[in-house]
Structure formats: C-alpha cells, structure tokens
TrEMBL record:
Protein name: DUF1722 domain-containing protein
Domain DUF1722: 12-119
Organism of derivation: Lactiplantibacillus paraplantarum
InterPro entries on file: DUF1722
Length: 128
C-alpha cells in the first residue's frame, strides 16, 4: 500500500463523518491509483476544509453505519441492540457510539478500523 493509500485509509471515515462532499471529492481524487504532488496538495486542502465542517447527526450516522458493516455479521445480539440504542440517541454533542464501535474494533481485531482516524480520535477525546 502506498503512502497516500495509507493516508486515505486513515482519514476515510473521519472525512465521511464531517462532509460527504469532501469524502466524494477525495474518493474521486484517489480513483485512478496514480498520485502526484498536485493531488497531494489537493488532498491536504480537502482535509483542511473537511476539518472546518462540523460533524452532524446525519454525517456521523453515515460514517458509523459504514463502520458497523465490519461487525454486523459477527456481533452478538446484545451488541446489535446496543448499537441500535446508541445510534438512536446519537448527536455530535452526545456521541457514545464512536467509543462503542472502537471497543468492537478491539474485540474483533479489525486492523483497518483500529488505524482509522474516526475511531482513534474518539479514543483521544475520551482520554482527555
């Protein structure tokens, strides 16, 4: 995996949680697997713009539903019920779902998610 592919893997769900438009723009930027200094500069610009977009209930829901896809076939019934309950009460100001999904990523050892900015920032926010 190239450096920009690792960067996109790290940023992907975090960007989605902030802005679907920026997520789509970065996906398009990365679509042909050819990278350049111009694309690198555009990626940095799009990430900075996405950071200025506050997460909304809708964008968080979309991102977390994508993350949930890694667990939905192997989770327990109790975990599914907990996910649905946390999803129902999710707001950007009251986000207990991100930390729960991080716990599941640890439990089920999903490396892609464990190196995801979205879940790692949830960890950092809880530890401060």
């Amino acid at each position: 995996m190239t450096q920009w592919q690792r960067e996109w893997a790290y940023q992907k769900y975090w960007v989605m949680a902030h802005s679907q438009q920026h997520y789509d723009a970065i996906r398009q930027l990365a679509s042909n697997n050819q990278w350049s200094a111009t694309k690198e500069a555009r990626l940095k610009q799009l990430l900075a713009e996405a950071a200025r977009q506050p997460a909304t209930k809708a964008t968080l829901t979309t991102a977390y539903q994508h993350v949930w896809g890694y667990f939905k076939k192997r989770c327990t019934t109790a975990e599914k019920q907990r996910y649905l309950a946390l999803l129902a009460t999710l707001t950007p100001e009251h986000d207990l779902l991100g930390p729960f999904l991080r716990q599941l990523a640890l439990k089920y050892q999903v490396p892609y998610l464990l190196s995801s900015r979205l879940l790692m920032e949830n960890k950092a926010a809880r530890e401060t």
